[in-house]
Write a structure and sequence with these properties.
Helix content: 10-25%
Structural class: alpha+beta
Order of helices and strands: HEEEEEEEEEEHHH
Largest sheet: 5 strands, antiparallel
Radius of gyration: 19 Å
Distance between the termini: 42 Å
Strand order of the largest sheet: 1-2-9-4-7
Strand content: 25-35%
Oligomer: single chain
Number of strands: 10
């Protein structure tokens, strides 16, 4: 019964946040994404309606805990967006699951295209976001509780306990996007110049290299 309740709450989260969808409104019943079409557009072209199946709207990837391979952060995010569920194209919603090892961290990041709402499946987290006037809004959130991170604001989630924790997240975008600050600044494909980072963080260039090395292990 508890499992059914959890699934119902997760679906309710996705539907509720979808009522205020950030993505453009759909213009037909469904527009199953066809990423192989080669056409470049805002979103994805539609698959021929005669070719869609139930599998286009189905995904099992967040049904159970993910293996956490990152020993530094101790967390694993599993997305359930249009890249995983083609039927989400034009529907303006998506989900994700985040699993935390004891004391694990989902580090400071933003979602440029969506507000995020999390539901704690098990355990508890210290969560927070920072407003544009540098105010930290934070709280301990426990199993069965919900917390919202406004679109575009820096936020994080930290497991402060010695037990595993897991959350389900809902977004009002089919592809919310994620920019993790440390990774974006220090491990971008075209490196940010060391002198820029050194001046921005009031460190020397050797420390920039040390941070880069630590993040790419």
């Amino acid at each position: 019964m508890a499992g059914v309740t959890t699934v119902m709450l997760a679906v309710l989260l996705a539907n509720t946040i979808g009522a205020f969808a950030n993505d453009p409104d759909m213009l037909q019943d469904v527009c199953v994404a066809d990423p192989t079409s080669g056409i470049l557009m805002n979103g994805f072209p539609c698959k021929n309606i005669s070719m869609i199946t139930a599998e286009d709207f189905f995904f099992t990837g967040i049904s159970k805990p993910s293996q956490i391979a990152n020993n530094i952060l101790g967390s694993k995010v599993t997305g359930a967006n249009v890249m995983d569920i083609p039927g989400l194209n034009t529907l303006g919603v998506s989900m994700a699951r985040v699993d935390f090892a004891p004391y694990g961290l989902n580090p400071p990041h933003i979602h440029p295209r969506a507000t995020e709402m999390i539901y704690i499946l098990q355990g508890e987290l210290y969560v927070g976001f920072i407003t544009t006037n540098n105010k930290l809004v934070s709280k301990i959130v426990k199993a069965g509780e919900v917390f919202v991170f406004p679109r575009g604001l820096a936020h994080f989630q930290k497991n402060t306990s010695k037990y595993p924790t897991a959350v389900v997240a809902a977004f009002n975008s089919q592809l919310p996007g994620t920019q993790q600050f440390a990774a974006v600044l220090f491990t971008s494909k075209d490196p940010v110049p060391k002198d820029v980072l050194a001046q921005a963080f009031n460190i020397d260039e050797h420390e920039v290299e040390m941070i880069r090395a630590g993040l790419t292990q």
